[in-house]
TrEMBL record, chain A:
The lineage of its organism: Eukaryota, Viridiplantae, Streptophyta, Embryophyta, Tracheophyta. Transmembrane segments: none annotated. Belongs to the purine/pyrimidine phosphoribosyltransferase family. GO terms for biological process: purine ribonucleoside salvage. Keywords: Cytoplasm, Glycosyltransferase, Purine salvage, Transferase. InterPro entries: Ade_phspho_trans, Adenine_PRTase, PRTase-like, PRTase_dom. Pfam families: Pribosyltran. GO terms for molecular function: adenine phosphoribosyltransferase activity. It comes from Forsythia ovata. It is an enzyme of class 2 (transferase). It comes from the Eukaryota. Pathway: Purine metabolism; AMP biosynthesis via salvage pathway; AMP from adenine: step 1/1. GO terms for cellular component: cytoplasm. This is adenine phosphoribosyltransferase.
From TrEMBL, chain B:
The keyword Cytoplasm applies. Residues 40-168 form the Phosphoribosyltransferase domain. It comes from the Eukaryota. Belongs to the purine/pyrimidine phosphoribosyltransferase family. Keywords: Cytoplasm, Glycosyltransferase, Purine salvage, Transferase. This is adenine phosphoribosyltransferase. One of its GO terms (cellular component) is cytoplasm. InterPro entries: Ade_phspho_trans, Adenine_PRTase, PRTase-like, PRTase_dom. Homodimer. Its EC number is 2.4.2.7. It catalyses: AMP + diphosphate = 5-phospho-alpha-D-ribose 1-diphosphate + adenine.
Amino acid sequence: MFAAENGLKGDPRLKGISDAIRVVPHFPKPGIMFQDITTLVSNPRAFKDTIDIFVDRYRDMDISVVAGVEARGFMFAPAIALAIGAKFIPLRKPGKLPGEVISEAYELEYGKDRLEMHVGTVQHGDRALIIDDLVATGGTLSAAIRLLERVGAEVVECACVIGLPEVKGRCRLGGKPLYMLVEPRQ
Amino acid sequence: MSSCKEDDPRIDGIQSRIRVVPNFPKPGIMFQDITTVLLDPRAFKDTIDLFVERYKSKNITVVAGIEARGFIFGPPIALAIGAKFVPLRKPKKLPGKVIREEYDLEYGSDCLEMHVGAVEPEERALVVDDLIATGGTLCAAMNLLERAGAEVVECACVIEIPDLKGRDRLNGKPLFVLVESQ
């Protein structure tokens, strides 16, 4: 579900956030209109508004874990975790986390990749939020959901700044609610 | 100039949460793992607060964070002091026009990239990463910012490994760390 349909209709912050996102055509390959959030995080007002909207939504939901997907999810998730007093858990590409990990495979357009999480960081009964900058097919987020559920956490919601057309009209992903702030810019 | 916060009572809590993982990523390396600090909301908040208290009145306009663990500490600092956050990334991750800086590894070399136009001349910049080892990456980061005309005010890391003398590679730029690893 998009923020505008879920309590924030007409909120001027959403336009500011959308306007701050830069579109880079044909990256990483021809035909892809890449949604670049670096211009968002380099706009202090729009970046703060982004975090504030997520924090306002989640502060009273008893969230104990905020998981961020490497690497762009790392730019948003820790600030949310700090504001709501939750643990921050990085979900990373293979081989980056030291010590014992569990991993989940997910599909790419061509081939597969894996997402890893540290063992022992999340307990049964932890209520988790998963954050990434953007959701397209939902493959990465679905792998993230599976990782957290394998260790007994309850995934309360997945949240992204941008939701691509593949997920438009969907309120759920992998059986979990999906919350997005804005649609892609043209 | 360069300093370490030894006397603040919050430092103990942060230091005690750092986990050392032996022989990662290869034999002989005692890896300083900060993910365990992030699991303790109090310790993570104290880490950010210590940096924010130092930098909030220094007119910093840019916080540059080094991929990927610099992305965990940089944005909360930037948000708290009202500065831009600029990610410095491995090659081919940033879309659009970039400038790149090569730096030496133990074997071979690597590159760091920054968007053209992310930083304007005369901006006052902070460089943030979780840890300084040899200083190679931080040095490349400073070079990128200076090539764009910014002034690097200071480099800030949670952990320093003094034996690797990274501090000496920073061309006289100040380095601020919270914890020194043994």
